[in-house]
What does this fold into?
Amino acid sequence: MTRERLYLFDTTLRDGQQTPGVDFSVEDKITIAGLLDEFGIDYVEGGYPGANPTDTEFFTRKRTSRSKFVAFGMTKRAGVSASNDPGLATTLQSKSDAVCFVAKSWDYHVRVALGCSNEENLEGIRASVEAARAAGKEAMIDCEHFFDGFKANPDYALACARTAYEAGARWVVLCDTNGGTQPSEVRAIVEKVIAAGIPGKNLGIHAHDDTGQAVANSLAAVEAGVRQIQGTLNGIGERCGNANLTTLVPTLMLKPAYAGRFATGISAEQLAGLSHLSRAFDELLNRAPELQAPYVGASAFATKAGIHASAIMKEPQTYEHVPPETVGNRRRVMVSDQGGKANFLAELKRRGIAVPRDDLRLDALISVVKEREAQGYAYEGADASFELLARKMLHGLPEFFRVTSFRCMVERRFDANGNLKTVSEAIVKVLVDGEEKMSVAEGHGPVNALDLALRKDLGKYQGEIADLELADFKVRILNGGTEAITRVLIESHDGTGARWATVGVSENIIDASFQALMDSIVYKLMKNRDMAGLVAAE
It folds into this structure.
């Protein structure tokens, strides 16, 4: 049976840049385009040349080798010819393989936003597509607000799509710009568009996630007949984001309902790099990966309950909808107060820690973990701290250094200019190879000051922690009042790209933070010696 080809269109570098707090540099865009190109995406939309200096520079050369490099732009303005529209000229002169024009397809927007007649808008669509084809570019039209426009005035929305198709657009993309259309509506409207004479092989879907259904809407559109799917890495985008390609791609490739009917340009080997792609992108954005992201999240194949863990160790498919390795992820059997001996044995085995099932030290470890979790520790979210505790209780840990004391001070004062300042200072005394070293540091808050002081001089180990960075810091108050128990979770990473989490619990937030900081450094030193870090290395 011949499978139909689906084409994947990534708009991370254009629509994804609308995400609050996201602002790509040219270098960022080059890196991301390279990742997408290597992964096998069919179309990489790089931005809007002429709209800003970054995008203009980005389009001075072609940035992909396999993927088609796409420039975004507006259709020509009403009242001027295509040859006299400077915006259109800039788009067509970019070093792109294809051009994606955004066009109004809701008559309400034509009237309010463009201020032109419906006929002038149709002429802009036709002339822009023809100009792109004349320039040797593959042309496509994003029919903005198509589904809302269709519900308001189906004849005009269809006229916009038909004009683009008849002018020679390779793709007519139906956009749920406001993100409020439901999957049943998407399916019904796409079927009507195809019945009106625009072939599904020339239709695309561009869904936003304002009701949490961008992926569902994209799949509904595919089932109805569209053959191009637009989305972004990790679902970033304006407001609530766009359709998440890291969810869509494995669904299309691994689920029989789609895999049996459709083919993509991505191989099984490339799909196995999906988790790496997702995490590398989050790293570039300097944000923590979403733990519960489908397929690629660290918790996507995590099991906490003891009965589930026991079943997974016998037959993984009992609680896994796809094998985690198909998307480059891994199975996690988590240790917690809800876990039984099977959880602990599975997690220890995966970390290369050998212990017989009937070993009394294992029983002691389980008892300590459950007792500590009752006190507020959370080892399911602190993999590195669990590994250090397990190795210490089962086989012992080397003592790289010992902190003999630390002190932290916070002072609020006026500086020489009369400005009110709050300054944090920390003093840490560390014993390394019998020699005591004292370090002092100022920081942005007491925890930062302690971190800087602790890592300021570790003697012969100093060079080993040069690439160690704290990526995230979370504080949770476990009970009420100023004397409350505090839990601190710290996520760290190093130059290898590995990430790990550590935990500290205390009535004193500084002490809890220091526990987590200490574990992070010790884990890094263990990892450097291949004595720990299997989880991070994966």
Q: What stands out?
A: The first strand starts at residue 4 and ends at 5. The chain has a mean pLDDT of 91. The radius of gyration is 28 Å. The chain is about 40% helix and 20% strand.
